[in-house]
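user: can you give me the structure for this one chain? tokens are fine.
assistant: on it. calling the predictor now.
[tool input]
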Amino acid sequence: MMVASVQQSVDKLSIEDVEKYLSAKGWSKVATPNPHALVYAGPEDIYGEPITVVLPASKMLYDASDRLTQTIHTVAKIEGRSAVQLLSSIARLNRFSGAIMKRPAKRRKLTVNP
């Protein structure tokens, strides 16, 4: 996958998809006074400080695509793999969680006691 197609894949992601992935991998949401940013803290760097990534709070923000792309590349580097592999993992996780949430409820027989 070329850089352009990585960018196209990132542009198709929802912010929620990336948040679900980060949470599933142990990243923690950090409070921030900026209403336009979602900050996540991940593994520690070589100085013992958590590595942070900043997601846009909305895709309507002018730098939303850049922030998502930067986050994908940062997390991929931390995990020791390519952005393409990370995007694939995010897609798989969200297909899986979506399938669980969309699973129809089991029918139960109701019994009425006279």
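assistant: here you go. The chain has one domain: 3-102. Helices lie at 3-12, 15-24, 64-79, 83-102.
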